[in-house]
Write a structure and sequence with these properties.
This protein is of the alpha/beta class. The protein has a single domain, classed as Rossmann fold, CATH 3.40.50.150. Helices cover 31% and strands 25% of the residues. The chain is built from 8 helices and 10 strands. The strands form 2 sheets. An 8-stranded mixed beta sheet has the order 5-4-3-6-7-9-8-10, sandwiched between helices. It has a two-stranded antiparallel sheet with strand order 1-2. The longest helix has 13 residues. The two termini are 31 Å apart. The N terminus is likely disordered. Bound molecules: S-adenosylmethionine. The site of S-adenosylmethionine has 23 residues, from helix 2, helix 4 and strand 4.
């Protein structure tokens, strides 16, 4: 089902200035404008590969500050809507949208040497579960965050950001490489974690961000 995002975004305080097009699950999963903008300002690196972009909420906001973003999702309808959203947001020329499986080595390898860092935002729910059922283990997101992390590191770069649900414990997250585990609060509610790896982390362990 395609819905106009105006109503759901107001409810979710996502902060978009125009109604994003997208299916209700993609709109529910989409990032906050403030949080996407923070990421682009913090990292300030020119070319990024975004894995699991859905209808482009993060992509469009980051593209306002960056030179180029390659954005991949395996859901064709979401990519079509992401394209329309980017057009409406006047950032289409900075983005290349790709329909594809981010677990496919051949797809990832295409970007080696071209991109400076990777942003990954897997579906927080296990395969076939409702999007509101958030995983407690890295292996239970879709695709599995642990496997995806290792694949990006092996094939592309160690400079990686993940957006993950707060249902995943710090112990579980610490099973990956040392990272900065940023607790992101929107209007004083803890909403999710940004994990920074490689050169993108400022320190090891927990940091907090209020937006
Ligand atoms: C949490 S949403 C991403 C939200 C997006 N970053 C935003 O800010 O709007 C997760 C997305 O991962 C996509 N996805 C799940 N498995 C995938 C895979 N193997 N390859 C590519 N995309 C995948 C889903 O289609 C979904 O759109």
């Amino acid at each position: 089902m395609n819905i106009d995002k105006t109503k759901s975004q107001k409810e979710n305080f996502k902060g978009f200035k125009f109604p994003l097009k997208g299916d209700i699950d993609a709109l529910y999963m989409s990032n906050y404008v403030l949080a996407a903008d923070y990421l682009a300002r913090r990292i300030n690196s020119e070319i990024c590969l975004e894995l699991c972009c859905a209808v482009g909420a993060t992509t469009i906001i980051m593209a306002q500050k960056m030179k180029k973003i390659f954005a991949i999702d395996n859901n064709q309808t979401r990519i079509k809507n992401a394209y329309l959203n980017a057009k409406k947001g006047n950032v289409l020329k900075k983005i290349e949208f790709i329909v594809g499986d981010v677990m496919d080595d051949h797809i990832l390898k295409r970007y080696k040497g071209e991109i400076k860092w990777v942003m990954a935002d897997p579906d927080w729910s296990p395969p076939k579960a409702n999007v509101r059922t958030h995983a407690h283990k890295l292996k239970d997101t879709t695709p599995p965050a642990d496997l995806l992390y290792n694949k990006i590191k092996k094939l592309l770069t160690s400079d990686i950001v993940f957006r993950l649900p707060i249902s995943i414990s710090i112990d579980e997250i610490s099973s990956l490489d040392p990272s900065e585990i940023q607790h992101v609060y929107i209007k004083n509610d803890l909403k999710f974690f940004y994990l920074y790896f490689g050169k993108l982390k400022r320190e090891n362990g927990i940091t907090k961000l209020w937006l």
